[in-house]
Specification:
single chain, about 110 residues, mainly alpha, 4 helices, about 85% helix, about 0% strand, flat
C-alpha cells in the first residue's frame, strides 16, 4: 500500500474501534434502558412544548433536554438512596441522544 491508502485504512480502523468502544460502553450495566428512557422523556416533553404549548422547536428541545437531565439525575439519586452507587455514566447515557438531537437542531436552525 502507498502512504495515502495506509492513511485511509488506519482512519477506518480507528473509526471502527471508536464505534466498538461506544457500543461496548452502551451495553454495560442497564445503559440501553437509560437511553430508551431518556428518549421517551425527551420526546414527550418535546411534543408537549412544541405542539401543545407552541414554543419554537429549539427552545422546546432545550427544555426537553433539561428535563431529561433532571430526570436522569433524580433516578440516580433515588438508586443511591436505595443502596446503589450514583452512576454518572448511566445519567450520561440517558441524555446522550437527546443532547445530540438538541445540538443538531440548534445547528440546523442557526445555519
Amino acid at each position: 500500500l502507498v502512504g495515502s491508502e495506509m492513511c485511509i485504512r488506519d482512519r477506518l480502523n480507528a473509526m471502527s474501534m471508536g464505534i466498538k468502544v461506544l457500543y461496548d460502553w452502551l451495553l454495560q450495566s442497564n445503559r440501553p434502558a437509560h437511553v430508551k428512557a431518556g428518549m421517551f422523556v425527551f420526546v414527550v416533553m418535546l411534543v408537549f412544548c412544541f405542539l401543545l404549548l407552541g414554543i419554537d422547536f429549539c427552545k422546546s428541545a432545550i427544555v426537553s433536554l433539561t428535563t431529561t437531565a433532571i430526570a436522569a439525575i433524580v433516578v440516580e439519586y433515588i438508586q443511591k438512596k436505595c443502596g446503589f452507587i450514583f452512576d454518572w455514566l448511566d445519567a450520561l447515557a440517558t441524555v446522550l441522544l437527546p443532547g445530540l438531537i438538541t445540538v443538531f437542531s440548534i445547528l440546523v436552525v442557526t445555519l
